[in-house]
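Quick one from the shared queue. A colleague (R.T.) flagged Cytochrome b as missing a structural entry in our internal table.

Convert sequence to structure tokens.
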Amino acid sequence: MILWRQRVSEKVETGTGRPERYGPVAIILHWVIALLLIFMIGLGLYMDHIPVSDPTPLHQLHKSVGIVTMLLIVVRIIWRLTHRAPALPKDMPTAQRVVAGGMEGLLYLFQIFLPVTGWLMVSAMAMPIVLFGLVSWPLIPLPQSVMDSGYLAEIMPDVHNWLAWSFGGFIALHVLAALHHRFIRKDQVVDRILPHHGSRH
């Protein structure tokens, strides 16, 4: 049913060969991942004062949700690469189009690198990952020399934290841009990804 609705949505074009808005699969993935990322950032900030070397149930929850989020991001990227995105407003300046495309690319890169660095971090520390206490998730295999040196285990928490803070900043810019389109430009950019689309007055 969802796939059928996706095809119907993609048949409604703007004259550029692109759909007017994202289909239901893309919309669901966008908002589910957004909620998971907000949860992960909040949980990460709360855990910031807890040493990674002193694992708690919160660490295991953080790792579990992180792995699930990473898998959903992979699905989202594959879906995005195989389905055309809606066209941007025709009156949007070229510079803003370039910035929008660059921002989209950066957000995808952060969504990939952030969970991967977390996975690499716990792998370097040889810390087990048990998804929600039920299913063991494999660690990234690393050379024994890397494990013995301990250098990767030492730097990865800082790398992961730096990426998380940077990602949070880009998310804030993304939200500000959405608010700008919604309330200042008053165009249809935000409507393309909203779960419920109605007429604008």
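The radius of gyration is 20 Å.
Strands lie at 129-131, 135-137.
Added to the table.
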